[in-house]
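[09:14] KT: can someone run the structure on this one? pasting the chain below
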Amino acid sequence: MKVSDVYLSGLGVFQPPAVDAGQAARRGEYDPGAYLDNRYTGVCVAGDVSPPEMAVHAARQALSRAAADPARIGLVLHATVFFQGPVMWHSPAYIQKEITGNAVPAFEIGLGCNGVFAGLELAAPRMGAMSPDETVLLTTAENFGSPQVDRWNGALGFIVGDAGGALLLGRQAGFARLLAVGSASIPEIEQLHRGGEPLYPPSLGTKLEMKARAQYFRENVMSLAEVSEVCTRALAELAGRTLEEANRKLDEMTRVIYHNAAGYLMKELLLEPLGIPMERTTWQFGRGIGHTGASDQLLSLNHLLITGQLAAGDYVLLTGGGPASVSCAVLEILDIPEWARA
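[09:31] RB: done, structure tokens below
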């Protein structure tokens, strides 16, 4: 989807301290073979800080950095992956209460780790009908410290970290401009994240067994090599289409941001399909904080800005893969804000 007049005016993150992956392997918490294969160096752990609280911290930072009035927020979007608090509770309302206190719509987005992309797709057309001075607050946050989750060994090619992120989107000005954004579904692999588990009753309170689900899918539906082929083809096609909508080429992208995946998955799912080197990605940063759900791209963008790795005139391709979906977005960096220079 080609986008006009949507700017990133604020960016905020909540990034807790990281636990050393090597030490976790030596303690027996992290499988030593997976440690060597995945090449993670650490993972962020937030303790008992809830995801909505992380999102509020990130939102306040985004608003502060943008010197923006929270009363002008006309839409609140919150992207989620795992439980945010009590079951059958609306976490976006908590974020709205803490940040704006107004009565504008507040929606929860459930596209898994691609939730931020979905938020951008929902926000962009709606912003055309909003007042020029109104903004959209887009947040996401996760805490995977639940007993239901094996942080270190629960998924193939990932260790999961805790973090939050926030974007403030406006129509008038910002440090970056959204040129295009899009997603594509891959329904033939939906069972990869379901395995052989029944659709009903919901598996509330049970251990999250992502490896077992993948194993069931591999044995009963298609091989993981076929899954990789389907996903890489979908991402390459979507990236090409999104770049075309942005009127840009891949070799114009200063940096390419993907999820904080294991090194071999980065190569398999991103580098080889797009034909780019690891050095153009943010993997060196991401391998130290773990896969933080939908926050990965926001944390990486923040890292690039505050470490001086972007300049005005640069272009950034954001990419992602979630449950049965792929997503992409193209940003143009217009200015390096004072908070990043400082």
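[09:33] KT: thanks! The longest helix spans residues 224-245.
[09:34] RB: yep, looked fine to me
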